[in-house]
């Protein structure tokens, strides 16, 4: 590979890399590349050229070369005469990026290649499309032969554009330009062409000039080569080194596989690839909608999606999987909760049924309770009538009768209220309540029944019993149920032993503990743990739900309930309740 | 009847103070002397043979209940009629009470006429039984005056034995039998064998002995 320019020329480097990659890709063999640079911009004397020629001849004397790929910039000597002298039998393919005329003797030498022209028309067209308000174009160029060729082509294009003034800055040294471009009027753009040599004799690569001017210029800068893109220049219809490399590699492969270069015509490509720098569009507030659809927008920062596509996909997958798992767990939990609620509802329903049946057990006792005041009212009323029939009715007596009737009426009402609150179907409520009062009330409910069964009821309540948090009716049901159980357990005892104690105390932890203690037959040792199981019963007429319901109610209150046999005789049922505060 | 004898009184028992008071008030308004007790024990302590009338008691009471009171009263020297008042109709208990001679078994919510009628019947029965008990007492006193031999002869007489047969049985002569018979009819102030038989039956004498022959 022979290059006119030095190793550091950006355009040459891009082209070399592209060529190597594309040729290797097209070939099944391992291709060995050698690169030699004439570096003619810096060493332009003929002496250097001859030294380079001798050097190549000696260096590759013993090497068998299959192909010469030449990349000329100033003239075609490295394409024609040099290879012809040094490597006479090696075919030559060239790639040139310039505006120079092709020497007519080249094809006679059996050389083929690709000439890429700068797409000046395309670049000016893009410029005017992106910035339609452009009134003035400053063209920066050099004084070399190639530079002039380019400028001449621009002039041709400029004539076709109306309303835009083209100004050619070729007589100013490049070093002075950064100061000159700082303060240009609005509507101006800069078109940077090749500066192989400026008026001061200084040599530049297009990318070098771009890097000097673009950051300081107060107007947009357009360029001709892809190597200058990335400096901050807006872009242009650029020479695409990659495309060029691909085409040249194709041509080279044809030659390598035996095609005669003479039969392959020299290709001239005038079409560039439109490219713009995304950052420059932002800087000059050029709307992306103005950019042609086939124009390549470079250096666009990748969106989060583009940059972390895999990470996002994986995260999303994990997230979705997690969401599914969570949803499944939630559904499961919901179903379990619904089931629990259902069970609780059923227990509550049973609690109601159980209360009704408990009331049934108490019904005769309660009828007695109710009939007492009703009977008293009746007798009082009858007595009153009789007193009134007398000649001189005793009004004091009659007044006393009315007073007593009212008292008994209240008493009957209270009995009914107690029954009604127990019979009402209801859900759990939670209020602070005085358990001492509740025990007293429950004992009143059970007392008639206890009297019939000749059972003494005693109550022992700690003096400072705190209020407990709970549902009055449900807790009363539990207490009543435990009391009736205790009374049942003592039916075969001697009357003197029939004692049911209700004890309420506070534990060291501040929890209220209620004990219902009988002196009956106790619980058979291996059944103690089973008494709270639903349908467990020792009574011939029992349903076995009383204790199970009691347990549900107590646990719904955040308490516990347990049964144990007393050391002497009988059993105790103990439940705990949370204090209200 | 002896004018110094006590006036028939209603003894009413109930552990429920307010019902007790109302019932007492009613019976007083209806013209009865009334004495009220809050428990069977209190009443039994006060019970004496001189008291007459009837007992109106609640069935369900702490301590002794109504049935137990009835039992105690039946075994006492003054078995006054008992009327039960119950706040609830309990059939087995009713049957039990009636079998033991309860005058009536009423609910507390019955009309006053029911109660007053029952009391009227009970008082009549008490008076009648008291008279009978008085007569029997008299008879017992008279029978107690008989000698052992006279009582023995009486036993044979009420079984329809002839004097001659009695003399044979007892190994005494017929004249002595006649003399005993004269003495015992004079003591007992009866004229006929038929009347003798009725009296001994009334007192429950000679029942356990097997019939002759």
List the helices and strands and how they pair.
The complex is a heterodimer of chains A (about 575) and B (about 210).
Chain A: E1 2-3, H1 10-26, E2 36-37, H2 46-59, E3 68-71, H3 81-86, E4 92-97, E5 111-116, H4 120-130, E6 136-140, H5 145-160, E7 165-169, H6 177-180, E8 188-192, H7 206-213, E9 221-222, E10 235-238, H8 241-256, E11 267-269, E12 273-277, H9 278-283, E13 296-298, H10 304-307, H11 309-388, H12 395-423, E14 431-433, H13 435-452, E15 456-461, E16 468-470, H14 472-489, E17 499-506, E18 512-517, H15 546-556, E19 561-565, E20 571-577
Parallel strand pairs in A: 1-2, 1-3, 3-4, 4-5, 5-11, 6-7, 6-8, 8-9, 12-13, 15-17
Antiparallel strand pairs in A: 10-12, 14-16, 17-18, 18-20, 19-20
Chain B: E1 9-13, H1 17-29, E2 34-37, H2 40-46, E3 53-58, H3 66-74, E4 82-86, H4 91-99, E5 104-107, H5 112-145, H6 148-158, H7 163-170, H8 174-188, H9 193-203
Parallel strand pairs in B: 1-2, 1-3, 3-4, 4-5
Helix pairs in contact in B: 6-8, 7-8
Any overview of this molecule?
The complex is a heterodimer of chains A (581) and B (213). By secondary structure, chain A is an alpha/beta fold. Chain A folds into four domains: 2-116, no CATH class; 120-238 and 271-301, Rossmann fold (3-Layer(aba) Sandwich), CATH 3.40.50.2300; 335-427; 430-581, 2-Layer Sandwich (Heat Shock Protein 90), CATH 3.30.565. Chain A has helices at 10-26, 46-59, 81-86, 120-130, 145-160, 177-180, 206-213, 241-256, 278-283, 304-307, 309-388, 395-423, 435-452, 472-489, 546-556, and strands at 2-3, 36-37, 68-71, 92-97, 111-116, 136-140, 165-169, 188-192, 221-222, 235-238, 267-269, 273-277, 296-298, 431-433, 456-461, 468-470, 499-506, 512-517, 561-565, 571-577. In chain A, α1 (10-26) links the parallel β1 and β2 (36-37). Chain B has 213 residues and is an alpha/beta fold. Chain B has nine helices and five strands. The longest helix of chain B is centred in the middle third of the chain and has 34 residues, at 112-145. Chain B has a five-stranded parallel beta sheet, with helices on both faces. Chain B has helices at 17-29, 40-46, 66-74, 91-99, 112-145, 148-158, 163-170, 174-188, 193-203; strands at 9-13, 34-37, 53-58, 82-86, 104-107. The chains are: A alpha/beta (581), B alpha/beta (213).
């Amino acid at each position: 590979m022979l290059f006119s320019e030095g190793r550091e020329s950006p355009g040459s480097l891009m082209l070399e890399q592209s060529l190597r990659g594309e040729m290797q890709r097209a070939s099944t063999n391992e291709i060995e590349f050698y690169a030699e640079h004439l570096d003619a911009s810096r060493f332009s004397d003929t002496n250097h050229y001859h030294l380079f020629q001798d050097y190549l001849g000696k260096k590759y004397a013993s090497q068998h070369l299959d192909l010469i790929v030449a990349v000329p910039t100033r003239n075609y000597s490295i394409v024609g005469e040099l290879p012809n002298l040094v490597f006479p039998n090696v075919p030559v393919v060239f790639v040139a990026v310039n505006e120079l005329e092709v020497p007519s003797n080249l094809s006679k030498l059996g050389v083929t290649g690709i000439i890429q022209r700068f797409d000046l028309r395309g670049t000016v067209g893009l410029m005017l499309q992106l910035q339609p308000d452009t009134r003035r174009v400053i063209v920066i160029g050099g004084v070399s032969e190639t530079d002039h060729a380019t400028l001449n082509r621009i002039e041709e294009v400029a004539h076709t554009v109306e309303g835009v003034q083209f100004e050619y800055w070729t007589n100013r040294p490049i070093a002075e330009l950064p100061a000159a471009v700082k303060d240009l009027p609005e509507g101006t753009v800069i078109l940077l062409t090749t500066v192989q040599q400026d008026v001061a004799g200084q040599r530049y690569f297009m990318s070098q000039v771009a890097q000097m001017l673009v950051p300081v210029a107060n107007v947009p800068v357009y360029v001709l080569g892809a190597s200058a893109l990335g400096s901050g220049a807006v872009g242009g219809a650029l020479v695409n080194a990659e495309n060029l490399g691909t085409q040249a590699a194709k041509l080279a492969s044809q030659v390598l596989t035996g095609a005669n270069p003479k039969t392959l015509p020299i290709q001239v490509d005038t079409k560039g690839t439109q490219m713009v720098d995304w950052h420059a569009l932002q800087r000059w507030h050029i709307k992306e909608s103005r950019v042609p659809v086939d124009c390549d927008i470079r250096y666009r920062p990748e969106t989060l999606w583009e940059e972390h596509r895999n990470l996002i996909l994986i995260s999303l997958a994990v997230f979705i999987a997690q969401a599914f798992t969570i949803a499944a767990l939630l559904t499961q939990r919901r179903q379990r909760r619904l089931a629990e609620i259902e069970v609780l509802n059923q227990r509550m329903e049973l609690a109601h049924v159980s209360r009704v049946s408990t009331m049934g057990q108490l019904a005769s006792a309660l009828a007695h309770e109710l009939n007492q005041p009703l009977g008293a009212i009746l007798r009082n009323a009858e007595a009153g009538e009789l007193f009134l029939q007398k000649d001189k009715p005793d009004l004091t007596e009659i007044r006393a009768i009315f007073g007593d009737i009212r008292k008994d009426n209240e008493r009957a009402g209270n009995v009914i209220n107690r029954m009604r609150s127990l019979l009402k179907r209801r859900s759990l409520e939670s209020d602070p309540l005085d358990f001492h009062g509740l025990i007293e009330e429950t004992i009143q409910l059970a007392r008639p029944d206890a009297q019939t069964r000749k059972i003494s009821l005693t109550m022992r309540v700690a003096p400072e019993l705190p209020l407990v948090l709970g549902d009055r009716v449900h807790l009363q049901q539990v207490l009543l149920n435990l009391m009736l159980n205790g009374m049942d357990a003592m039916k075969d005892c001697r009357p003197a032993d029939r004692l049911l104690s209700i004890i309420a105390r506070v534990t060291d932890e501040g929890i209220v503990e209620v004990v219902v203690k009988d002196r009956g037959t106790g619980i058979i040792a291996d059944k103690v743990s089973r008494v709270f199981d639903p349908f467990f019963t020792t009574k011939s007429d029992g349903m076995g739900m009383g204790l199970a319901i009691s347990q549900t109610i107590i646990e719904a209150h955040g308490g516990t309930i347990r049964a144990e046999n007393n050391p002497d005789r009988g059993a105790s049922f103990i439940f705990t309740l949370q204090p209200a505060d | 009847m002896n004018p110094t004898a006590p006036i028939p009184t209603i003894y009413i028992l109930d552990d429920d103070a307010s019902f007790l008071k109302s019932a007492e008030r009613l019976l007083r308004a209806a013209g009865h002397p009334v004495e009220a007790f809050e428990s069977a024990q209190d009443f039994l302590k006060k019970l004496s043979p001189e008291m007459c009338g009837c007992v109106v008691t609640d069935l369900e009471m702490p301590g002794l209940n109504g049935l137990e009171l009835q039992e105690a009263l039946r075994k006492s020297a003054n078995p006054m009629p008992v009327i039960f008042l119950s706040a609830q109709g309990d059939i087995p208990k009713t049957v039990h009470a009636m079998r033991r001679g309860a005058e009536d078994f009423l609910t507390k919510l019955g009309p006053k006429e029911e109660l007053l009628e029952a009391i009227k019947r009970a008082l009549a029965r008490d008076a009648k039984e008291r008279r009978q008990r008085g007569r029997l007492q008299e008879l017992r006193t008279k029978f107690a005056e008989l000698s052992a031999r006279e009582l023995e002869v009486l036993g044979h007489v009420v079984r329809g034995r002839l004097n001659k047969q009695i003399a044979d049985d007892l190994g005494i002569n017929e004249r002595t039998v006649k003399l005993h018979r004269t003495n015992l009819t004079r003591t007992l102030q009866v004229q006929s064998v038929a009347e003798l038989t009725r009296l001994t039956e009334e007192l429950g004498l000679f029942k356990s002995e097997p019939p002759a022959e």
